[in-house]
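Annex B, item 7. Sequence and structure tokens for protein A, then protein B.
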Amino acid sequence: MFRAKEKLRTEKIQLGFPTENDLVKRLDNVLHIIYLLFSEGYYSRTQNQILRKDFCIEALRLGVLLTEYEKTNRPKTNALIALMFFHSSRFNARQNEEGELILYEQQDEDAWDSELIHKGVYFLSLSVTGEELITYHLEARIAYCHCTKKDSVENGKRFYNFITSC
């Protein structure tokens, strides 16, 4: 940190907020990095842990921060947040007491966090505005279907309708 600050000072580098064009270009990279952070937490390979909730929560926090700024509150931002909320809703059902993974089919749906599912639905509904359809939209919709296991056939129909309406 000290060396970075010193270099900025000695080279007289001025930090400033990017232009709107640059901001839009950079948003994709920022969203990708946030998704990588979440993914590392969700399927962690560090510290002998499968699930690193702290990484996932930080990724969600950063994503939600982006929605609080008008220029970065885009449909793709909301789609990524929806995806992360849907996956986070099943944290408590993914592992048993020994820390072993529980397959989706064997997960106890009562252990799923319905509040996080509702937040995911909220952000997913915000994500369908606009003209752009990206992978976060598709992944979020699939993740939503996985949060409603009981209605999987009906969700498949809704997913098809969602895709064809975009």
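Protein B:
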Amino acid sequence: MLDRAIQTAIKPVLNRVAQGLVRLGVGADAVTLTGFVIGMAAAVAIALQAYVLGLVLLLTSRLMDGLDGAVARATQPTDRGGFLDITLDFLFYAAIPLAFAVANPAQNALPAAVLLAAFIGTGSSFLAFAVIAEKHQVASTAFPDKSFYFLGGLTEATETIAAFAAMCLWPAAFPLIAYGFAVLCGITIAMRIVWGWQRFG
């Protein structure tokens, strides 16, 4: 829901940093892979209950995720880069709830499982819509720079990162945050099913 506004606000800064990286010969795929490694380090830190470190690494990882697209646009976007970006993003989003489950299985295992099930719904509806949109040659006007149709909802990247940050700041409240965010994901799934039903009818 907030992705478009956030991306518009930070795009000038990301573009300037991207231009510097391009001058240094750094490619978009390298930025994507670096961000993913940092994201996995965040998951490890959370699993070890180093929540503040996990938060710092998590936010750094997502900054890199925004930066790789800027680097790609400053050079030459590729289908391989788009594929790598979305695949590693989904692995990152799954790793964080899993890390909280590992950190405190007795308290967090069930809410983490519920949240991961909700993520499967949001992820599958997101990708299924993108596949059919490509078949019908439908372009996204909200996110024209993306390598495929970028379908929104209540729980986009910005909201997910905010939820993850809240979990790191208040780890004892993980179950409440996870269940609450899973409900929002459920609403997003329902919205996307309706949108797909109407759009591709």
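Comment on protein B: The chain has one domain: 3-199.
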